[in-house]
Protein 1
Amino acid sequence: MNDDSKTLKKLDTLIRHTRQNTLMTERLLAHQVFQSLPDDKTVTFPHRGETIRFHVPDGWLDAVQRIIMLNRTFYEAALLERVRERVSPGTTFVDAGANIGNHTVYFLKLCRAAHVHAFEPMPHMQAILQRNADLNGTDRVTVHPFGLGATASTADVEIFNPANLGSTTLRASLNAGTDGAIPIRPLDAFDLQDVGFIKIDVEGMQDAVLSGARDTIARCKPDLVIEAFQRGDEREKTEAVLADMGYRVDEIIGHNIWAVPA
């Protein structure tokens, strides 16, 4: 091994150790802040003149809840601000992969949504999502306890990381009657009217969600924001699905495609 290779190896080791130490420090801080929260584990903060409340029962560990708890702001705040700038008040939103309701609450309070239909398949997150809807105006939020997909079916959990609950990944069940299977429904089955905006964050299942929402999208022509990573051909495949549906990519925001009718 030459000197340059040895130096690069040392730098790589240093970077990995620094990242580990930073994460440990952040988690220690998060645990201390979490312990100082009231018994209901709710944080309250102002945002653009609104009072925002979030129940964060896993704030010491889960990435999204930790960001909200430590920073007293929304997760993916820059993306959400772009939504506020572009989407008119009074719009009906669909939040596919709603997790604990970070985006749902923003759509409700800051985008002045007429209604938010929040879809979350995991029971633990469903309960937190409903609690956060209750804390921030539940009369304009409907929590749907389903994952969205191409057809009515079931799925099982393939990847689960308690330190990042939003990264939970599902796979189609081999046996629809499997105990604990997660119910999957196409968005078209809900016959939603006047949908103006759909956000999809479903850990690689976005093409199936789009397939099951074709009628709704064709009828309502909403703006779409879809998480689609540039890993392999994931983003290219999603863009091809969108083109087939008569949509074009209008903007790329981080890992998200903003698509509009062509």
Protein 2
Amino acid sequence: MDTPLRAVALNCTLKPSPGESSTDVITDQLLAELTTHGVTGETIRVVDYDVKPGVEADMGHGDQWPELRERILAADILVFGTPTWVGHMSSVAQRVLERLDAELSETDDQGRPIMFGKVAIVAVVGNEDGAHKIIADTFQGLNDIGYTIPAQGGTYWNHEAMNPKDYKDLDETPSAVAATNKTAAANAVHLARQLTQAQYPGS
């Protein structure tokens, strides 16, 4: 019997709810693909919460990161979604990585960082260039924190240069993006199930 898995999608758009978000569209697509493999999940629009700057698990009065952190820790698969702004990930995405940095000092009873055994995939959308660099930077950060990245674990859509258009305004998902979403989700589930059965060695 397959191990039940849970996913959490972090939408790092700069637009608070209920504003329409292209990042929401692609993370929802990935969650839908994960659902076909029996994974349950939820989306967190990070900008809707007061996430304080810092590199601690709890930055004190008013910080809502601890609430998000618990939901992230409860998930086997992280879907990390960000728009592209001036060629970079959003400031919200950067803050999430900075807050996740605190997990490097948190270990389980065998001395492993607590994110060991969890899988992450990344989605980027934008009407300008930058997706490859953003995915590379995000992969590196998440891997340092302890996440495992599956084969072809990044998906993205960029519109052509100097001709702005948003992913959410497309009439249909481009076939290449749909295929990549499908592969990223399938590989994430495969890897997560392997890791639930054979965790990394303790220190």
Protein 3
Amino acid sequence: MTDEEILRALYDETLVGNGPRVLELTEQGLDAGMAPETMLFEALIPSLEEVGARFERGDFFVPEMLIAGRAMAGALDRLRPLLAETGAQTVGTFLMSTVKGDVHDIGKNLVNIMLEGAGFHVIDLGVQVSPEKVVAGVLEHKPDIVGFSAFLTTTMPMFKANINALQKAGLRDQVIVMVGGAPVTQEYADAVGADGYAADASTAVRRAKELIATKRAAVGV
């Protein structure tokens, strides 16, 4: 296969979530001497962007997003160390967690996959994450964005607790805060003082990119 054929097949197989074939094509590309960033930026990321677009149009649903995301995640596992060696630029660093009192993580994990697919470096603190752990994570990883997920209405107040903890630690102005989860609304996000809200994984990626671009433009980066 030519490089162009490999890229086209990578795009197509990621779109339908054929994980084994995506991994096989990734290895083929590497064996043929293709740069890992070429496969990432010319096939894998465009394919996942198309998945997101189809989801927003109602042509794809969560299961299709999940299998496409997982197919890409397999390729990313193979390419990530090689991308690090080449010094490929990431879009930004995203620190993710499900809030204290909540153990739900399917939505969070899907957002993580989509963010990684879009070129973000994602650090996942897991579930049941306390405000103290959030502050420690921000100090350690210095993310551009901090994301909080809540699936239960009873745990949504932890958004405010986390934001207050960041404020108290003098870190609130250093990070963008995004929130999401099944019961969360834009109105609630505004009420707790979050910078961004997304109803689904595809929107989360787009919103995260917008927020980073706006912040960097404001500081002249």
